[in-house]
Amino acid sequence: MKQIIPKITFWRVVAVIIVVAGLYSTYLRFTGGLGASTNLSDEFPWGLWIGFDILVGVGLAAGGFTICAITHIFNIEKYKPLARPAILTAFLGYILVIFGLLYDLGKPYNIWHAIIYWNPRSVMFEVAWCVMLYTTVLFLEFLPIALEKFRLKKLLAFMKKVGIPIMITGVILSTLHQSSLGSLFLIVPQKMYPLWYSGLLPVYFFISAVGAGLTMVIFEAYLSARAFNKGIEADLLSRIGLYSVIILMLGFIVKLIDFALTDKIHLLFTINNYTLLFYLEILVGTIVPFGLLIQKRIRENRRWLYASAIMVISGFLLNRLNVSITSITPGAGIKYFPSIYEISVTLMLVTLGMWAFKIIAKNFPVFASEVHFENNQFQYNEKLSEGKV
After folding, report:
1. What's the Cα-to-Cα distance from 345 to each of 55, 58, 112, 341, rounded to whole Å?
2. pTM for the full model?
3. Which residues contact 219 (CB under 8 A, 6 or more apart)?
4. Where does the protein end up (predicted)?
5. Who contacts 307 (Cβ-Cβ below 8 Å, separation ≥6)?
6. Mean pLDDT, to the nearest integer, of 126-137?
7. DSSP string computed for 354-372
8. What is the CA 202 to chain-centroid distance, rounded?
9. Mean pLDDT, rounded, for 4-31
C-alpha cells in the first residue's frame, strides 16, 4: 500500500518549523508593514530580501539559460541531460524571486505598475520587464516536460518547433537583466565602499552569475542523486565545474586590472572589516575552488566536486550581500542586520523552493533516464494503438 503520510525525519521537522515561522513573519509583514517586520529604514531601504532573495536568487538561476545556450543554441548534445533540471531550477528560482519582491515592496499590490506605467530610462523598469518575460520563457521551456507527462503529442510537437526561438529569447533576456542588476548600483557610487563599486559592475554581475549558475547545476544534480537514489552525470558535471571556475577566475583577473586602472590596489592592503570580507568572498568563491577544480583528480571526485560547488555558491552569496548591504553601510552611516522575520521569510522561500523541486521532479520526466523511459513508453503506446505491437 502506498504511503500517503511522509515519514517523519529530522530535516522534515526542521523544514516544517521554518515554514511555520516564515508564515508568521508573512502575517506580520502584510498586516504591520515593513516597519513591523524588518530592520529597514529610509537611510537603508534595501536589505536581505533584495540582497539574497533577488540578487542571489536571480544569479543562481543563471544555470538555466547557460545550459540552454550550450545544448540548444550551440547544439552540444552531450549536455542535454543537464538541461531539464537546470530549467526547472531556474523556473522555480524566478518564481521565488517574484515572491521575494512582493515582500520587499512597500505597496506590493502595485507590482503590476511596470506593465502599464512605462519608464524606459529606469534600470528597474528594464529589470522588471526582463524578469516578467524571462519567467514566461522559462514556463514555456518547462512546458514540454508537462506535455510529455500528459502525452499531449500535438502540443508537444508544436512546442518543439518553436523551442529554439524561445530559448534564444530566454538567453537574450537573461543576459540583459543579469547585467542590469549590477547597473542598479551604478547610481550610488558615493555610498558604496570602493572595493565593490566599479563602472564594470554590470560585467561582474553577468560573469559571476554564469560561473555560479553553472555550479548550481552541480549542486542540484548532487542533491537530486541523493534524494531520488539515481546516478550522477559525473563526466558532464566535472567539465561544468571546470568551466565555472575558469569563468570566475577570468572575472577576478578583470577585477584586478580594474583595480589597477582606477588606483584601488592600495585598498587591498588596507586592513579593515571590509577588506577581510572582500578577501573572504574571493578566497571562498574563486581562488580555492579554482585551485581544486583545475585538478582533474579532484574534479572527478563527486564529493570534492560538490564541496567546490558549495564554496562557489557561498562566495557568490557573500559577494551579492557585500555589494547590496556591506558596501552600502559606511555611506548610509548606520548599521543594518536583518530582523528575525526577514531571515525566517528568506529561509521559508528557500525551503518551499526545495519542496517544489522535489515534488515536480518526482512526478514529471525531469531527469534523462526518465525522459528516455517516457519516450520509449510513449512510442510503445503509439505502436500499440496502431496495432503494430
Report:
1. 16, 17, 22, 6
2. 0.88
3. 306, 309, 310, 313
4. Cell membrane
5. 292
6. 89
7. HHHHHHHHHHS--SHHHHH
8. 17
9. 91
